[in-house]
Amino acid sequence: MHSFSAYCRLNVPISASQRAVIRAALLKINPLARFDPDRRGDRHDYFRAMLDHHQDAQDPATRHRLRGRNDAL
Asked: Residue 72 above 60 pLDDT?
């Protein structure tokens, strides 16, 4: 599993789309490994891990926004 620090190095805001996360992750991959068919599974695992970390980062922010909105009512 790829670490949360790898996700942090993508420098994407938590409001970024999943597509933006994939684009940022793609730029972090070594160009020689980017097009290697033997590493395709590894690339997919890396992208999935980055998307999972992105979702984990978004969850607390979403809960905080919703809680603040409900308190105002």
From this structure: no
CA distance 46 to 50: 6
CA distance 65 to 19: 23
* Cα distances (Å, whole numbers) of residue 65 to 23, 68, 72: 27, 5, 11
Contact between residue 53 and residue 1 where contact means Cβ atoms under 8 Å apart: no
Find the helix packing angle between 40-72 and 18-28, rounded to 10°.
Answer: 140
pLDDT single digits (tens) 12-43: 999 999 999 999 999 999 999 899 999 999 99
Cα gap 6→16, rounded to integer Å: 16
Structural tokens at position 28: 């972090």
Task: List the chain domain ranges.
Answer: 4-72
What does pLDDT average to over the chain?
87
